[in-house]
Amino acid sequence: MLSLDKIYHARFVLKDVARKTDLIYAPKIDPESNVYLKTENLQNTGSFKLRGAYYKISQLSKEEKERGVIACSRLEYKNWDFGFSLRASLGNYVYDGINAGWSNMNPGEVWSNSLNYLSNRPVDAVARNWQTYEITAKASDYWVRNASFLKCDNITLGYSFSNLFKNGSYRGLNGRVYGTVSNVFTISNYDGIDPEINNGFDNNLYPRPISFIIGLNLNF
Question: How many helices (H) and strands (E) does the chain have?
Fold first, then answer.
Protein backbone atom coordinates (compact mmCIF):
# COMPACT_ATOMS: atom_id res chain seq x y z
CA MET A 1 0.00 0.00 0.00
CA LEU A 2 1.31 3.45 -0.94
CA SER A 3 2.07 5.57 2.11
CA LEU A 4 3.37 9.09 2.67
CA ASP A 5 6.61 7.64 4.05
CA LYS A 6 7.22 5.79 0.78
CA ILE A 7 6.67 8.99 -1.19
CA TYR A 8 9.22 10.81 0.97
CA HIS A 9 11.65 7.90 0.59
CA ALA A 10 11.28 7.93 -3.20
CA ARG A 11 11.91 11.67 -3.20
CA PHE A 12 15.13 11.11 -1.22
CA VAL A 13 16.34 8.35 -3.59
CA LEU A 14 15.60 10.43 -6.71
CA LYS A 15 16.91 13.79 -5.49
CA ASP A 16 20.21 13.43 -7.39
CA VAL A 17 18.73 11.47 -10.31
CA ALA A 18 15.63 13.23 -11.60
CA ARG A 19 15.75 16.81 -12.83
CA LYS A 20 13.48 19.46 -11.38
CA THR A 21 11.35 20.48 -14.33
CA ASP A 22 9.26 23.62 -14.64
CA LEU A 23 5.53 24.22 -14.99
CA ILE A 24 4.68 26.17 -18.15
CA TYR A 25 1.45 28.11 -18.43
CA ALA A 26 -0.49 26.98 -21.53
CA PRO A 27 -3.39 29.40 -22.10
CA LYS A 28 -4.04 28.18 -25.66
CA ILE A 29 -5.32 24.83 -24.40
CA ASP A 30 -8.22 26.43 -22.55
CA PRO A 31 -8.23 30.23 -22.15
CA GLU A 32 -10.90 30.01 -19.44
CA SER A 33 -8.86 27.67 -17.24
CA ASN A 34 -5.42 27.83 -15.68
CA VAL A 35 -3.66 24.98 -17.49
CA TYR A 36 0.01 24.28 -16.81
CA LEU A 37 2.27 21.74 -18.51
CA LYS A 38 4.93 19.82 -16.60
CA THR A 39 7.99 19.61 -18.88
CA GLU A 40 9.00 16.04 -18.06
CA ASN A 41 10.34 15.68 -21.62
CA LEU A 42 13.41 17.51 -20.28
CA GLN A 43 14.34 14.53 -18.09
CA ASN A 44 17.49 12.55 -18.97
CA THR A 45 15.35 9.86 -20.57
CA GLY A 46 13.08 12.31 -22.38
CA SER A 47 9.99 10.96 -20.59
CA PHE A 48 8.20 10.96 -17.25
CA LYS A 49 8.92 7.25 -16.65
CA LEU A 50 12.35 7.89 -15.13
CA ARG A 51 11.19 8.26 -11.53
CA GLY A 52 9.06 5.14 -11.24
CA ALA A 53 11.47 2.89 -13.15
CA TYR A 54 14.59 4.05 -11.30
CA TYR A 55 12.99 3.84 -7.86
CA LYS A 56 11.49 0.40 -8.50
CA ILE A 57 14.79 -1.10 -9.67
CA SER A 58 16.72 0.56 -6.84
CA GLN A 59 14.50 -1.27 -4.32
CA LEU A 60 15.03 -4.74 -5.78
CA SER A 61 17.11 -7.23 -3.83
CA LYS A 62 20.31 -8.72 -5.23
CA GLU A 63 18.51 -11.99 -5.99
CA GLU A 64 15.69 -10.16 -7.81
CA LYS A 65 18.17 -8.18 -9.91
CA GLU A 66 20.01 -11.38 -10.86
CA ARG A 67 16.75 -12.84 -12.20
CA GLY A 68 16.57 -9.93 -14.64
CA VAL A 69 14.27 -7.04 -15.47
CA ILE A 70 11.61 -6.78 -18.19
CA ALA A 71 10.80 -3.45 -19.83
CA CYS A 72 7.81 -2.92 -22.12
CA SER A 73 6.75 0.17 -23.98
CA ARG A 74 3.93 1.16 -26.32
CA LEU A 75 3.74 4.27 -28.49
CA GLU A 76 0.66 5.54 -30.30
CA TYR A 77 0.36 8.16 -33.02
CA LYS A 78 -2.97 8.74 -34.70
CA ASN A 79 -4.01 5.27 -35.93
CA TRP A 80 -0.56 3.73 -35.54
CA ASP A 81 0.77 1.84 -32.53
CA PHE A 82 4.24 0.53 -31.84
CA GLY A 83 5.28 -1.70 -28.94
CA PHE A 84 8.31 -3.67 -27.83
CA SER A 85 9.49 -5.78 -24.92
CA LEU A 86 13.06 -5.86 -23.56
CA ARG A 87 14.45 -8.27 -20.99
CA ALA A 88 17.85 -8.25 -19.28
CA SER A 89 19.79 -10.54 -16.98
CA LEU A 90 22.90 -9.13 -15.29
CA GLY A 91 25.48 -11.17 -13.43
CA ASN A 92 24.42 -14.28 -15.37
CA TYR A 93 27.11 -16.98 -15.59
CA VAL A 94 27.04 -20.17 -17.66
CA TYR A 95 29.23 -23.27 -17.85
CA ASP A 96 30.23 -23.66 -21.49
CA GLY A 97 29.83 -27.44 -21.70
CA ILE A 98 30.04 -27.51 -25.50
CA ASN A 99 33.57 -26.10 -25.70
CA ALA A 100 34.60 -28.03 -22.60
CA GLY A 101 33.45 -31.31 -24.18
CA TRP A 102 35.31 -30.66 -27.46
CA SER A 103 38.51 -29.22 -26.00
CA ASN A 104 40.76 -32.30 -26.39
CA MET A 105 42.97 -32.00 -29.50
CA ASN A 106 44.74 -35.31 -28.96
CA PRO A 107 45.06 -37.04 -32.37
CA GLY A 108 43.40 -40.14 -30.96
CA GLU A 109 40.35 -38.07 -30.08
CA VAL A 110 40.16 -36.07 -33.30
CA TRP A 111 40.57 -39.10 -35.59
CA SER A 112 38.45 -42.21 -35.07
CA ASN A 113 40.42 -45.26 -36.21
CA SER A 114 37.43 -47.57 -35.94
CA LEU A 115 35.07 -45.44 -38.05
CA ASN A 116 37.66 -43.53 -40.09
CA TYR A 117 36.39 -39.98 -39.67
CA LEU A 118 37.54 -36.64 -38.30
CA SER A 119 35.44 -35.19 -35.47
CA ASN A 120 34.57 -31.53 -35.34
CA ARG A 121 36.41 -29.13 -33.06
CA PRO A 122 35.73 -25.46 -32.27
CA VAL A 123 38.27 -22.98 -33.64
CA ASP A 124 39.23 -21.98 -30.08
CA ALA A 125 40.11 -25.60 -29.28
CA VAL A 126 42.59 -25.68 -32.16
CA ALA A 127 44.29 -22.56 -30.82
CA ARG A 128 44.52 -23.96 -27.27
CA ASN A 129 45.71 -27.38 -28.47
CA TRP A 130 44.92 -29.15 -25.20
CA GLN A 131 45.87 -32.82 -25.23
CA THR A 132 43.92 -34.20 -22.30
CA TYR A 133 40.50 -35.01 -20.92
CA GLU A 134 41.71 -34.95 -17.33
CA ILE A 135 39.15 -33.77 -14.79
CA THR A 136 41.24 -30.63 -14.20
CA ALA A 137 40.68 -29.69 -17.85
CA LYS A 138 36.91 -30.19 -17.81
CA ALA A 139 35.77 -29.42 -14.27
CA SER A 140 37.40 -26.02 -14.27
CA ASP A 141 36.09 -22.49 -13.85
CA TYR A 142 37.91 -21.75 -17.12
CA TRP A 143 34.65 -22.71 -18.83
CA VAL A 144 32.46 -20.49 -16.66
CA ARG A 145 31.49 -17.55 -18.87
CA ASN A 146 29.79 -14.25 -18.18
CA ALA A 147 26.48 -14.61 -20.01
CA SER A 148 24.75 -11.36 -19.06
CA PHE A 149 22.37 -10.33 -21.80
CA LEU A 150 19.79 -7.91 -23.11
CA LYS A 151 17.03 -9.43 -25.24
CA CYS A 152 14.30 -7.93 -27.34
CA ASP A 153 11.52 -10.51 -27.10
CA ASN A 154 9.11 -8.90 -29.53
CA ILE A 155 8.33 -5.83 -31.61
CA THR A 156 4.81 -5.05 -32.84
CA LEU A 157 3.62 -2.44 -35.33
CA GLY A 158 -0.12 -1.99 -35.84
CA TYR A 159 -2.62 0.20 -37.64
CA SER A 160 -6.23 0.61 -36.47
CA PHE A 161 -9.03 1.55 -38.86
CA SER A 162 -12.74 2.29 -38.63
CA ASN A 163 -15.72 2.60 -40.98
CA LEU A 164 -13.95 0.69 -43.73
CA PHE A 165 -16.25 0.11 -46.75
CA LYS A 166 -18.91 2.31 -45.15
CA ASN A 167 -21.89 2.66 -47.45
CA GLY A 168 -25.30 4.15 -46.62
CA SER A 169 -26.69 2.58 -43.45
CA TYR A 170 -23.81 0.09 -43.35
CA ARG A 171 -21.31 1.36 -40.79
CA GLY A 172 -18.39 -0.52 -42.28
CA LEU A 173 -15.66 -2.52 -40.60
CA ASN A 174 -13.54 -1.62 -37.61
CA GLY A 175 -10.31 -3.42 -36.86
CA ARG A 176 -6.57 -3.50 -36.69
CA VAL A 177 -3.83 -4.93 -38.90
CA TYR A 178 -0.49 -5.66 -37.29
CA GLY A 179 2.87 -7.34 -37.68
CA THR A 180 4.93 -8.90 -34.89
CA VAL A 181 8.53 -10.13 -34.76
CA SER A 182 9.52 -12.42 -31.87
CA ASN A 183 13.02 -13.18 -30.56
CA VAL A 184 14.33 -10.11 -32.39
CA PHE A 185 17.89 -9.77 -31.08
CA THR A 186 20.22 -10.62 -28.19
CA ILE A 187 23.10 -8.45 -27.00
CA SER A 188 25.69 -10.40 -25.02
CA ASN A 189 29.42 -11.08 -24.83
CA TYR A 190 28.74 -14.80 -24.48
CA ASP A 191 30.21 -16.78 -27.40
CA GLY A 192 27.76 -19.69 -27.22
CA ILE A 193 24.49 -20.11 -29.10
CA ASP A 194 22.31 -18.52 -26.43
CA PRO A 195 23.26 -16.98 -23.05
CA GLU A 196 19.85 -17.85 -21.57
CA ILE A 197 20.35 -21.36 -20.16
CA ASN A 198 17.78 -22.72 -17.71
CA ASN A 199 20.15 -24.80 -15.60
CA GLY A 200 23.34 -22.83 -16.24
CA PHE A 201 24.91 -25.70 -18.24
CA ASP A 202 25.27 -25.03 -21.97
CA ASN A 203 25.20 -28.37 -23.74
CA ASN A 204 23.55 -28.82 -27.18
CA LEU A 205 20.90 -26.15 -26.73
CA TYR A 206 18.45 -26.00 -29.65
CA PRO A 207 18.57 -22.44 -31.08
CA ARG A 208 15.51 -20.27 -30.52
CA PRO A 209 14.12 -19.18 -33.90
CA ILE A 210 13.07 -15.71 -34.93
CA SER A 211 9.41 -15.67 -35.97
CA PHE A 212 7.19 -13.29 -37.93
CA ILE A 213 3.42 -12.90 -37.54
CA ILE A 214 0.98 -10.86 -39.62
CA GLY A 215 -2.50 -10.49 -38.11
CA LEU A 216 -5.86 -8.91 -38.75
CA ASN A 217 -8.59 -8.21 -36.17
CA LEU A 218 -12.06 -7.28 -37.44
CA ASN A 219 -15.09 -5.96 -35.56
CA PHE A 220 -18.41 -6.24 -37.37
Answer: 7, 12
Q: Which of 192, 184, 188 is nearest to 209 (CA)?
A: 184
User: HSE (CB half, 13 Å, CA atoms) of 10?
Assistant: 14
d(CA 63, CA 119) in angstroms, rounded, equals 41
Distance CA 111, CA 113 (A): 6
Report which DSSP code applies to 2.
-
Q: Would you call 15 helix, strand, or coil by DSSP? A: coil
What length is written for the chain? 220
pTM to 2 decimals? 0.59
| pLDDT tens digits, one per residue of 135-159 | 777 778 888 999 999 999 999 999 9
* Whole-number CA gyration radius for the chain: 27
Rounded to whole angstroms, the Cα distance separating 39 from 161 reads 32
Residue (of 181, 185, 180, 182) closest to 149 by Cα position: 185
Sheet holding 173-188, edge to edge: 69-77, 80-89, 149-164, 173-188, 211-219
**DSSP code at position 31:** T
